[in-house]
Amino acid sequence: MTLLDDAMLVAQAQSELPYRTEAYTNLVRRHGRKIRSLAQRFTADSAEAEDLTQEILLRVYVELPRFRGESSFSTWLWRLATHLCIDHQRRTAARPKTENAESLVENTMHPIDRIAAIESRLDAERLLKTLDPEDRSIVLLRLLMDLEFREIAAILDSGLSATKMRYSRAIEKLRSNCFQERA
User: Fold this and answer.
1) Other Cβ atoms within 10 Å of 2 Cβ, number
2) What is the per-residue pLDDT for 102?
3) Is the N or the C terminus of the chain less surrounded, counting Cβ atoms within 10 Å?
4) 121 pLDDT band (50/70/90 cuts)?
């Protein structure tokens, strides 16, 4: 079987949806894991990340027929996903968290490893929450998704130099906050 590139899958999905979903399903298989990883970084727990991932994939399903190809599919996808993650973060920022730290990792881990994993994740989440949502998305798209700055700029509809500057300032803020916590 020949693997189709994103552009070919998008064209096929646009002609098939909503009656057939094979091409859409192939796009989800190709990009779904990274979308889930991005959602996980914006949420407090796995169930919430799964809900956010489903919200993103549903939006892709609904919006894909209107995708005009003015940018690459991956740029369009990350723009959509990032904006939904930022919106989600804003909606949930005021809600109190009743998170059980034990639920953050598998119960099959050794207790000492489980504690270390929980502490590490909570530290990273706490530091990331010190950033505003847009800066957080730049950091996550760069570090988690390994996107180039020009791709991030296109996703956020921002200039390249502005994106690099915001990334640099966000990393500096993370470093500063990390050192302040350790002092």
Assistant:
1) 4
2) 42
3) N
4) low
pLDDT in tens, 48-76: 889 999 999 889 988 888 888 888 898 89
**CA distances to 8, 31, 134, 154 from 157, in Å:** 25, 21, 11, 5
Alpha helical stretches, state H, the chain: 6-16, 22-42, 46-63, 73-92, 111-128, 133-143, 149-155, 160-182
Distance CA 25, CA 87 (A): 25
User: What percentage of the chain reaches a pLDDT higher than 70?
Assistant: 77
Under 8 Å between Cβ of 43 and 97 = no
Residue 161: strand, helix, or coil: helix
Chain centroid, CA 101 distance in Å: 21
Cα separation, 113 vs 155, in Å, equals 37
